[in-house]
Amino acid sequence: MPVIAPLMKIQKCKDFGADVVVEGNDMFGATQVALDDSRSSGRVFINAFDNVRVMAGQGTIGLEILDQLPNVDAVVIPIGGGGLIAGISTAIKARKPDTLIIGVESEMCPSFNEAQIKGKPVLVPTSRSLADGLAVPQVIVKEDSIALAILALVEKEKSVVEGAGAVSMAAILSGQLDLLKGKRVVLVISGGNIDTTVLSRALHKGMAIDGRLLKVGVVVDDRPGCIAELCQVFSELQVNMRHLMHERAWVKADVFSVKVSVICESRSREHSLNLIAALQNKYDHVVLGEFPDPTTL
């Protein structure tokens, strides 16, 4: 496995008795190490995606989809190495050719998109991505959309899903598949190998994108009771203050003022907007942190 592989994935393989070799900066580098070992040791190398039997096994997902939803209109599938979508689409198209197959990949490693442009498999440089397992018509999704999808799956489906497995949901949430509205659609959610630390960061990022985690700076008078008055604004609106810090040395207003930076959690984007309006109504200097709009993802 490459050095960027999730620690949980490495440990789970060890728990099953595997001798895990962590080497290579990415999947390509790790594959080269495995191939070299195969040549020197005589052991059989099994590609994780570019293998007919692996793709045939993954194709059984397509058969299960048709067994459970014979009249399915479309299936949205994550694309990494291409084995999963190759197997599923082959099985589904063989039994129901009119089914629309849509592939989704991360913008940090759009290998399938580049291959379609070049007309052949190409090596695409990868960047650090929530969809580290990915690193037909296809959709490319942004990292913010993947984080939002991970959050939505945890909150609404009670499912812990890795970034690579959540890209199909990300494509829906980002509004790129509106053509599927009113149709019978299956999203393939293909993995839960995500470290707890990465999951925590993804959830916080998703909440920020959703407008529920907000960073705001307010300049108040530097006198007893002023910070308490500020906290009262949050309290009256029932906005949870998660972190508060005040600073004096870098305040541009005057030496009699203090800047209070607050990271807070609200119930919704509308709730956050109500807080911003209340702060701007009471204070002259209110500075917002990044407040992204999910409709632009």
Give the strand order, joined by hyphens, for the main sheet: 3-2-1-4
What distance separates the N and C termini?
31 Å
Number of helices: 10
Helix proportion range:
40-55%
Structural class by helix and strand composition: alpha/beta
H/E topology pattern:
HHHEHEHEHHEHEHEEHE
Got a strand count?
8
Q: Beta-sheet strand percentage?
A: 15-25%
Might you state the CATH topology name of the largest domain? Rossmann fold
The rough form would be described as elongated
Low-confidence stretches: 130-135
The CATH architecture of the largest domain can be named as 3-Layer(aba) Sandwich
The pLDDT mean sits at 88
Number of spatially distinct domains: 3
Report on the biggest sheet: 4 strands, parallel
Could you please describe the fold and organization of this structure?
It contains 10 helices and 8 strands. With 297 residues, it is α/β, with parallel strands linked by helices. The chain folds into 3 domains: 7-41, no CATH class; 52-208, Rossmann fold; 211-289, 2-Layer Sandwich (Alpha-Beta Plaits). The strands form 2 sheets. The chain has a 4-stranded parallel beta sheet, sandwiched between helices. The protein has a 4-stranded antiparallel beta sheet with strand order 6-7-5-8. Helix 3 (52-68) crosses helix 4, helix 6 packs across helix 7 (167-173) and helix 6 (143-157) packs across helix 8. GO terms for molecular function: L-serine ammonia-lyase activity; threonine deaminase activity.
